[in-house]
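Pipeline run #58 for the internal structure catalog. This entry was flagged by the ingest filter as a single-chain record with no existing model, so it goes straight to prediction. Upstream metadata was stripped on purpose; only the residue string is passed forward. Reviewer on rotation: M.T. Logging verbosity set to normal.
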Amino acid sequence: MKDGTILRFKGEGSQSFGKHVGDLVVCLKQKEHAKFSRNGNDLIYRHNIDLADALLSESIELHTIDGQAVKYRSESIITPHTTKLFKGMGMPVYTDDPLSPLMIAPSRGNLVLKFHIRIPAMSNEQRDRLIAALE
């Protein structure tokens, strides 16, 4: 569910003898995650990859929030603009009925894989050789 979602359960709140039973109100607060960020119902996963592995298009494996292993290998060099969309592997889409996830399998947003390329430390000579090789 999204940050700030308020769930209200009528008549399930605090009860005192001889007093009106109140509602139980739950307000959800989103917690930051070490690997994922959220965009609506989509999950964004930014994968750290070394420059050499990006140039070689090395395969990667990541795990969804459910623990499902997902493997990916780019058909071309991985750049900071490389993205891969995995449909239906993001956050569950809930309705206004707080019990709906218990009754049906909710649809899901997407998982979006993005890359952060780690550039190694190198001497000026190594940098110049790399630039020459790429020209």
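catalog note: The first strand starts at residue 6 and ends at 9.
catalog note: Residues 14 and 60 are 50 Å apart (CA to CA).
status: ready for reviewer M.T.
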